[in-house]
Amino acid sequence: MPVKLYQEDRAEWFDEFSQITEEANALVKTYYELDEDWHVMDRINDRSAPATCAIKLTCLFVERKLHKYQSGRKKVFLAEWFKIDRTTALHHIKSGTKLVEGDQVAVSEPTIGFMELWPLMEDIGIKLNVEGWLKRRDLQIRFINRQIDMLEMRKKEIQEKQILETHV
């Protein structure tokens, strides 16, 4: 029996990578207090700390969270997405993994800010994280409602702390 090859839908993974990159871009813009028009896709070859951080966040998120694609295919997609070679994508994945797992502290890490942004990136509110891979609509809605409730509780806690701080 011939092996059936799984054909990825380019438009689908392009859409997913776009969402992931947008979230990484938003985090980096806030962290570095960059202009509103700053975008990592315009600065791939900058080698600046913000661009490096956004690329590393995206690459590691794809590697750790996007389980529907084989690892080798992820690197090919990342290389095509960022218009870099696969070795560079693999470098970002490996260095990000080492940082997250605590095996290594990069010399440049204090200036990049990756470790401060990774926890935020890991829980980003895109469809992949919020709904997961749930197919049933009722389960997707229940999952989203649970996320909204958790965010409302966190918001209330922050507002209460803010009120206490202003009265002290």
Element order: H for helix, E for strand? HHHHHHHH
Helix content: 55-70%
Q: Please state the overall shape, judged from the principal axes of the Cα atoms.
A: globular
Number of helices: 8
Q: Structural class, from helix and strand content?
A: mainly alpha
Proportion in β-strands: under 5%
Count all strands and give the number.
0
Cα Rg: 18 Å
Overall residue-averaged pLDDT value: 82
Major pleated sheet: none
Through-space gap between termini: 74 Å
Q: Give the low-pLDDT segments.
A: 1-6
Give a concise summary.
This protein is mainly alpha-helical. The protein is built from 8 helices and no strands.
Strand-helix topology:
Elements: H1 10-32, H2 49-65, H3 71-82, H4 86-100, H5 109-112, H6 114-122, H7 127-130, H8 137-167
Question: What would you say this structure looks like, in words?
Answer:
There is one protein chain. Helix content is 68%, strand content 0%. It is an all-alpha fold and 168 residues long. The protein has 8 helices and no strands. The termini are far apart. The protein has 2 domains: 114 residues, no CATH class; 38 residues. Helix 3 crosses helix 4. The N terminus is likely disordered.
